[in-house]
Amino acid sequence: MYKKLFSQTLIYGLSNVLVRVFPFVLTPMLVKAFGPAKYSIYADFYSAAGIISVLLTHGMETTFFRFFQKYKDDETKQNTVYFTCMTSVFIASVLFLFFGIMVRQPLANAFKHPDEVNFLIWFLFILATDAISAVSFAKLRIQNKAVYFASLKIMNSIIVFVFTLILIFRIPKQIETEGMGSVLLSKIYNFDYGIGYAFAANLIASVLTFLALIPTMLRGKYTFDTSLWKKMMVYAWPITIAGLAGIINETMDRQFIKYLLPESVAEVQMGIYSAVYKIATFITLFKTAYLLGVEPFFFSHAEEKNSGKTYAALMKYYAIFSAIILLFLVANLDWIGRVYIRNPEYWSGLNVVPVLLIGSTFLGIYLNLSIWYKLSDNTRYGAIISGIGALVTIILNYIGLKYTDLGYWACAFATLLSYLIMMLVSYIWGQKKYPIPYNLRKLIFYIGGSSLLSLISYYCSTNIIVRIVTGNVLLIIFIYLILKIEHRDVIILKDKIKNFKLTKRK
Fold first, then answer.
1. Closest Cα partner for 458 from 446, 449, 470?
2. Phi/psi of residue 436, each to 5°?
3. For labelling, which of 3, 217, 283, 398 has a CA lying 20 to 30 Å from the CA of 14?
4. Domains of the chain: which residue ranges?
C-alpha cells in the first residue's frame, strides 16, 4: 500500500512540477519579445481565468472524490456520481460559453480590451473545455491511473509550449526570411495578433486534451440523479467559496491594477508586475512538490500515537528549506532576475520581488499548518481563513491603488500581509482545535530570520554588487546557524548515511 502510495504521489508530484515548469520557461521568451503593455493583455486574461474556472467547476472535483468513495461498494452508484458531476460542469460550461459569445463585444469592453474580441472568444473556449475535462481528470485519479493522468497533463503543457514557439516565433521568422516562399503562410498569419497567438496555442492544447479524455468521459452508462446533484451542491458550495477566496489572494491584484490605476499606466504596471511575479514560482515549485508528497502521508499517519510530533518535525524541516531558498533567491535576485527576464523594460519591477517571495514563503507555511482542519474534518474553517485573507487583499489593494502612488507595490504588500494574517490565524486557531507541538521558537527564527535578512540584504544598498555580496554572506552565516542549532539531527543523518554506505558495501 505504501509503495503504491509513494509511487503515485511521485508521479503526480513530478507531473505537477513539469506542468508549471513549461509556463515558467515560456515567460522570459514572451517578455523579451513583447513590452509590458502587450504582455499585460496575456497576463490580464489569465489573472481572471482562476475565478472563472472555480465557478465553472463549482467544487465538483472534490465533491466527486467524496461521493465516489461514499459509494465504494456500489459501482452503479459510482457511475451515477461521475455522470451527475460531469453533467453539472458541462451545463455550466456550455451556458458560460454561449452567453459569453453572445455578449462578446460588451464583455471585451468591460474587460477593457475592446479590440481583442478574437482573443476573448479563444479564451472562453479554453476555459469551457478545461472545465469539462476537470471531472474526467478526477476520475483518472480515483481509478489510480496516475501515469495516464500525468501523461495528459504533461502533453497539454508541451503542446502549449511548442505551439506558442511556433506561432509567435517560428512562423514570423520563416515568413520574413523566406519572403515569397511563404506566400501561403503570409496570407494566413496575422502579425497584428502578436502575443494573442499564445491563446491559440492554449486552445489547441485544451481541445487535444479534451479529445484524449473522450473515452474516459463516455465509459459507463449515462445517468443523472437530480436528488444526488442537490446533495452534491450542498457539499460543493463551501469548497467553491474557499476556492474563490484563494484565487482572489493569488491573482486578482492584476485586476485591481487594471481598474483602479489610470489607463495611461495600468497596462505597463500590470505587465511588469505579472512578469516579475513569476520569479516567485521558484518557491511555488518547492511548495507544490512537497505538499503533493506529504499530504497523503499526513492522512495515513493521522491515527498514530506520535503523529503530532511527526507533523511538527516535518514542519520544521519545511521551514528550514523554505528559509534557505528564500534567502538564496533574494541574495541573488539581481542576476537571477536579469537572466530570467531579459527585457530591461521589466527590471524596475525586480525591487518588489523580495516582498512577493516572503509572501509566498508565508503561504507555504500556512498550507502546512492547514492540515489541522483537514484532519479534523472542519474544512469550513479553511474557507473562513481564506475569506479573511481575501478580505485583507481586497481592502489593501483598493486603498493602496486608489489613494496612494504605490502602484504594484501596494499589491505586493497586500499579498504579504494577507498570507501573514492567514498563517497566524491558522496557527492560533489550529492550536486550539487540533494541537500540534510545533517548535514555535525555531519556526520564528527560521522564517522570521530569513525574511528579515532578505529585506536587509536587498534594500541595504542600491549597488548590485554590494547587495549580492551582502546577501550571500548573510546566507552562509544563516546556514551555519541552522547547522549549529540542528547539530543533533545532522549527526544522526551522518550516521545513517555512513551505515547505509557500509551496508551497501557488504
1. 470
2. -125, 130
3. 217
4. 1-251, 255-506
Strands of 2-65, DSSP E: none
Residue type present at position 394? I
Structure-block grid coordinates of residue 465: 554588487
Please give the pLDDT value at position 11. Answer: 67
* CA 438 to chain CA centroid, nearest Å: 27
What is the model's pTM? 0.79
pLDDT at 95: 95
Q: Please report where in the chains the cell 503526480 appears, as a residue.
A: 12
Cell 476537470 found at = 134
Consecutive sets of 10 residues in the chain, 506 residues long: mean pLDDT of each?
A: 54 72 84 84 85 88 78 80 91 94 90 85 93 88 79 90 90 72 67 85 93 89 87 82 80 87 86 87 73 60 70 86 92 90 88 93 87 72 86 93 90 93 92 86 93 92 90 93 81 58 57
Rounded CA separation 323/302 (Å): 27
Helices 408-433 + 379-403 axis angle, to 10? 160
At position 6, the amino acid (one-letter code) is F
Q: How far is CA 267 from CA 42, 124, 254, in A?
A: 11, 22, 10
- pLDDT, residue 31, reads 86
Q: What is the pLDDT of residue 2?
A: 46
Please count the helices (runs of H) and the strands (runs of E) in the chain. Answer: 24, 0
Question: How many Å from the N-terminal Cα to the C-terminal Cα in the chain?
Answer: 29
Amino acid at 463: N
Please, are residues 41 and 119 in contact by the beta-carbon 8 Å criterion? Answer: yes
Q: How far from 129 is each of 105, 204, 210, 217, 372, CA to CA, in Å?
A: 21, 11, 7, 13, 35
In whole angstroms, how far apart are CA 259 and each of 53, 103, 112, 254, 348?
21, 20, 9, 9, 22
pLDDT attached to residue 1: 45
Three-state secondary structure along 36-51?
Answer: HHHHHHHHHHHHHHHH
Dig out the grid coordinates for 495 from the structure. 550516521
Q: Which residues touch 122 (CB under 8 Å, ≥6 apart)?
A: 196, 199, 200, 202, 203
